[in-house]
Amino acid sequence: MHSIIGLFGLLGGLSLCSAAPAQNITSDVYFYGDSPAVYPSPEGTGTGSWATAYEKAKALVAQLTDEEKVNLTAGVSSTTGCSGVIAAIPRVNFPGLCVSDASNGLRGTDYVNGWSSGIHVGASWNRTLAHQRAVYMGQEFHRKGVNLLLGPVVGPLGRVAEGGRNWEGFSNDPYLTGALVYETVQGVQSSGVGVSTKHYIGNEQETNRNPGVEDGVEIASVSSNIDDQTIHELYLWPFQDAVRAGSVAIMCSYERINNSYACQNSKTLNGLLKTELGFQGYVITDWGAQHGGIASANAGLDMVMPESTLWGANLTTAIANGTMEASRLDDMVTRILATWYQLNQDTDFPAPGVGMPASAYSEHQAVIGTSSDEKGTLLDSAIEGHVLVKNTNNALPLQPSRLVSVFGYDAKIPDAFDLTFTFLSSSPPIQNSTLYVGGGSGANSPAYVIAPLNAIQQQAYQDSTAVLWDVSSQDPDVDPTSEACLVFINSFATEGSDRPGLTDEYSDTLVTNVAGKCNNTIVVVHNAGIRLVSDWIDHANVTAVILAHLPGQDTGHALVDILYGRANPSGRLPYTIAKQASDYGTLLHPSEPQTPYGLFPQSDYTEGVYIDYRAFDKQSITPQFEFGFGLSYTTFDYSGLNIQKSNGTTSEYPPSATIQEGGNPHLWDEIVTVTAEVQNSGSVDGAEVAQLYVGIPNGPIRQLRGFEKVLIASGQTVQVSFSLNRRDLSTWSVEAQQWQLQSGTYQVYVGRSSRDLPLTGEFTL
Ligand code: NOJ
């Protein structure tokens, strides 16, 4: 394996994203020849809900000197713990901005909650809960004086099975990710805090994400070479939903796209984002991701973090000598200030960074970010991302008042904990404590962590269960009267590197050791990404398995509620679990530099849209557990499929569509509605995730195009309804440069998962 120490490859506590010397490695080679330059950079127009904010921003910009304008476009070093800071302009009462990580809780400070991670939200398939989680999380950032939350993540989407940051995003399906990012953006921003949906675009691996030096030779970031149809149908899709939801910022990524750095790629920034999607906010760099000076400004970049050695006074020089238009600088600054007004941060916001201590043990004021009204949502969001994938012999739920034995390093809390806790260890048995979040800038330090073993003890206290435990041995002794043996393992992932594999021998041996001695072995895996289970899933003594993902600080309580049946599992896999790693084919590992592109690593997305279940379906590979799969303590029956074309459905676009945030507004025209009945045919209440898949003519066999999570009382039947819009039913046409409905027969499937689809039908367009 190639070993490259990237400029950002060595991570350390809160300095994770410290600035690096700017690199000037660029290449103008377009691998696919389909990334034409797009200039000039479109000015924000203040469409839709942005009109007033733009008016106010323009009035303020008119009062600024050139130097003040330039200062708004790049971060400065600060005495607070904000990940990035824009300096104040006291002369016009602008207090500056504090921007901070991340998608599942505020990092680097105290008195905040550790929320469920993106993958957990993806596994819960619950729009309402995703929204509520985001509202509360946003409120915490607000109390702490953070103007911009650095998240949510929809890139990586999850192309590479071993991707180190897949857990920060929701799912490797663009529809599911798009639906959940939409709610997240709206939820956070309703609290007056902005989001910077990231990492735009093609940030699908950590390996070679940054330029590096090997044997004294500079090596560029990996280039994600993506064709026009694939970028639209997979990778741009959730960003489109984020923009439609009003995301005030978009963070450009470290990678190159078709050989041009993401933060100076005029096709993706000026073209796709600002022209096609009508984006009104500003583009902010990932930390140190600026590699070109005026080129990046002209390509559509608006703000550089954490500082810029390339912009500053050079911007005004460039304007003076005609390399850059003055209107570009005005547009950059207008976009930045418009977001401040759009979120009402001019009238209702604490001092930027007020709750962000410079370091863990420095003197600082106690600024309470949490609030007791969040508790219910915090716990629900921790519960719903648990996916029960095996449950035999009525193993679950457990009966109170019996003996349970607890094994495995993942059952216990970490030995030490402070504000710099970011889970940076990575060798098995991984963290050697319970994994409730992945590592890197997405990790935070919650107010508390209830580990599974603590919550099981509390259960014992309440109902006279007896508990024995050994959470250090790989081959523990087992009391033969145990009602159940609970084994806790995890599968770690972190920013900065891709995962070494989808299993680890230590953990698999621990499971089989316990299963060898206990005929009711229940395995709980806290997994920061896909985790294979084939070594023990068919073991007769492994009676139940829960993929518990990354639940956040309420992890133990959430799990015990499920184990004892107070909560009925309702999570579904937001990715595919293969029987063997090789089933992921070329998408198992990240791309590595190869001759003749050693200095310019390439990652060719030749698979097109065929990632995860689209690929398994196409290649007829039977997965261990398919996308969308998950068990409940009850059962659900499906009937009554109905497919209705909307009146006036036409494959031609209605005329005169002015681009709005999110693109052509006719993409959201409803074309078809599908309804079905779902009955809870079991004896306990439970929530089902009814899923709709569509086979678009000339497209993959089926793609998720609708889901509805419904709580159904035992014996009751409810109707679920799915609205299919123009984008849902279209294919991106490279020739026409727009989404086009296909003439022909569409297949419709409704059911419990991508492979368990009892209702089928079709319609023709
Ligand atoms: C680098 C990470 O890629 C990004 O996600 C994060 O927001 C910044 N560092 C700031 O910490």
From TrEMBL:
Residues 688-754 form the Fibronectin type III-like domain. Gene3D superfamilies: Glycoside hydrolase family 3 C-terminal domain, Glycoside hydrolase, family 3, N-terminal domain, Immunoglobulins. It is found in: Secreted. Its main location: secreted. It is an enzyme of class 3 (hydrolase). The keyword Glycoprotein applies. One of its GO terms (cellular component) is extracellular region. It catalyses: Hydrolysis of terminal, non-reducing beta-D-glucosyl residues with release of beta-D-glucose. Its EC number is 3.2.1.21. Keywords: Carbohydrate metabolism, Cellulose degradation, Glycoprotein, Glycosidase, Hydrolase, Polysaccharide degradation, Secreted, Signal. Pfam families: Fn3-like, Glyco_hydro_3, Glyco_hydro_3_C. Residues 1-19 form the signal peptide. Beta-glucosidases are one of a number of cellulolytic enzymes involved in the degradation of cellulosic biomass. Catalyzes the last step releasing glucose from the inhibitory cellobiose. This is Probable beta-glucosidase M. The lineage of its organism: Eukaryota, Fungi, Dikarya, Ascomycota, Pezizomycotina.
